[in-house]
Amino acid sequence: MAENAIELIGINKSFGAVRANRDIALEIPRGTIHGIIGENGAGKSTLMSILYGFYQADSGEIRVNGKTAAIKTPNDAIAAGIGMVHQHFMLVENFSVLENVILGAEGEALLTKSIAKARSELRRLEKEYGLEVDPDALIEELPVGLQQRVEILKALYRGAEILILDEPTGVLTPAEADHLFRILEQLKEQGKTVVLITHKLREIMAITDNVSVMRQGTMVATRKTSETTVEELAELMVGRRVLLRVEKGEAQPGAVKLAVKNLTVRDSRGVTMVDDVSFDIRAGEIVGIAGVAGNGQSELMEAVSGIRKAVSGTVMLDGKPIDLTGQADPGELRDRGLAHVPEDRHHVGLVLAFDESENSILGYHDKPQYLKGPFLNLEAIQKDAQEKIEKYDIRPANPRLKTANFSGGNQQKIVLAREIEQDPGVLIVGQPTRGVDVGAIEFIHKRLIAMRDQGKAVLLISVELDEIRSLSDRILVMFAGRVVGERGPEATEGELGLLMAGVEHKEAAE
Amino acid sequence: MEFIDTLINILNSTIRVSVPLLLACLAGLYSERAGVFDIGLEGKMLAGAFAGAAAAAVFASAWIGLLVAMLVSVGMALIHGFASITHRGNQIVSGVAINFIAAGSTIILGQAWFQQGGRTPSLPPEGRFGAITLPGADALRDVPVIGQLYSGLLSGHSLLTYVAFLAVPFTWWVLFRTRFGLRLRAVGENPAAVDTAGISVTWLRYRAVICTGILTGLAGSYMALAQNAGFVKDMTAGRGYIALAALIFAKWKPVPAMFACLLFGFLDALSIRLQGTPLPIIGKVPVQLMQALPYILTVILLAGFIGKAIPPRAGGVPYVKER
Questions:
Q1: Whole-angstrom Cα distance, residue A76 to residue A270?
Q2: Which residue of B180, B181, B193 is in closest CB contact with A90?
Q3: Using a CB-CB distance cutoff of 8 angstroms, which residues of chain A are in contact with residue B178?
Q4: What is the pLDDT of residue A15?
Q5: What are the pLDDT digits (tens) for A117-174?
Q6: Complex ipTM, two decimals?
Q7: The domain spanning residue B122 has which CATH number?
Q8: Mind listing the domains of chain A with CATH numbers?
Q9: Which residues contact B251 (CB under 8 A, 6 or more apart)?
Q10: How many structural domains does chain B have?
Q11: Which residues does chain B have within 8 Å of residue A111's beta carbon, measured at their own beta carbons?
């Protein structure tokens, strides 16, 4: 048997004018965990989709176990022993675990036998790899960690010897991620080969044997993980030196800018999402809210920005209350100096069909500097947009381009530029770097610190613990709608992780 | 005894008017469960009815009529598939287009071929599916209740009626007990999952719309070859839309679909029966109100009484591999 599970030779792939992969060469030794890192758009996912038969390479060769393999469809990949866990799970939500596992691998036209066979096979896989999951549970009732397990089971059920995972930890809590890593280690021990695609350097260092770095469609380096450092990998990814931890001075907290008291919010189903939450934010500090997605952070943020109805409680901005009926006039709040960078830039933050300059003034379009009588002053708007583009390095630098044609990171910069440049007293910002490249993350973090140093109050909500820890002056942890703890920026990841998982501090100490 | 006779009478006509609804509803079920919305059931039924009646008239054979009806309906279904699966067009627009094509072309072709104002010639008995008398029906006719139900209600329908009701458990079995059904349901919920499992989304959806074509062909045949003796212009009269309402009402499930169609059929039968008959207390009810009853009921039931009808998640959305 050949030593390499996978060998890619001279892979090229273009989408129109975009060369997503150029002359990729890659060797993945059998029985190892191999990391592939790179910024968004570096071509990692395209490369893996080619390997899985989802796309066809324009040229190049794929060798599996030393033999040339013609992988034209996912079926060919499955037959060659390749399984893939996609970033967005490929599961049918209202099907049971069993039904999802057998889909496409039913064996025969009638289901009764295939289901029985799958049931006993699942039991075996469960035992062998510690992948417990109730075979009759519906996918939509399972937490994401278990849904991911079903994806892994699907691949193993099809006899996968090589498992590709695309950004597997994006949706997981730290504890779930650790569990996943244990499973991957176990797979490795059983002789399987694991390919891990990620942009999180920490994960690469924690679990991989080798790591390959992609940048702008090319494979720039492959290293043994034990012989490289986070700094080197980051530099290879971005092509220049990157500061992974923002440097910042001591916070100089001033007067209270935003005071939240006994805030309770229910969602449309009547479930309490924010439960009696109180906190203050002072001028000149960043308060971070950590928590696993879905523990009320989004609702809290929406209520504080006046776009979601609160059941009870008060929010004071500069000592005056904010309308919490969900009917607040956003224009008025902007005038009072409250700016809001929403979590979901596509649905709430931007109108994708508008051009860049229109989005860069959206919500502030009735300010006198953008108006000429009753009409928009297009010239001033273009000039304003051009300035923001230069200041925030938004690419491509074309204010007339449709917003949908910008990458995620640049879209995020458009929103940030719009809100920050209005010089608000309070900035509420949700997931500021979701889907943003390492280089742009550095820039966004610097801007937020600069806001703070100018004496603004910043409320930061993020599911990225690293981000919370490196930016915040104070960290509040939310679990099940309640603030379960407050820590300083020196809090360890483990400590915050336990709080995020709802484990009381006392229990954790025992 | 008169009450039982009346009841059996109404139930009997309930079955008769329910059959085309049921066949069309099941037709829609296959397509929509696979994620292809089909507002063109009406048009396919109409085209099937016309083609069936024309072929049955020319060849004097109900079976040839049925075959041609199914072929034409499948052809129309494939046009819908070509527009909405292969070319990822808007499924509603495509469906409406099918309805227009059917409504216009059946009249034009009917006039050109038969010169009877858009009608097809009246069919001889061998061009129709006649009533089948179940064994022992005549003998049991006089046994009270049970015999009356058997001979008056269960016996005496055309072959297509029995096919329609047998199609209900068959569809359930296909959907929930076969590989094809599993994949069909999956592709209507999450086509990407099907694609990554190595199954062709396109071919699977085409097979679903072919099933739809076959069943709408049956529905059209029933109207032209069993219920009536030939094609009359616009003879489906909105049944395709009622079938769609029944499908939503039944939450895209075969057995509830049958009951929904029977309910609509019952209201229809009742409205025919009660025309001109004064009701106790209320007095004489306008015909129009009775005719509108199924529609009113649909609105009321959909508005509040059946809970939320959640359509297949990928319904109406053409599948595009993400870039």
A1: 48
A2: B193
A3: 109-111
A4: 81
A5: 999 999 999 888 888 899 999 998 888 889 999 999 999 999 999 999 998 887 777 7
A6: 0.88
A7: 1.10.3470
A8: 4-238 (3.40.50.300), 256-509 (3.40.50.300)
A9: B306, B309, B310
A10: 1
A11: 176-179, 181-182
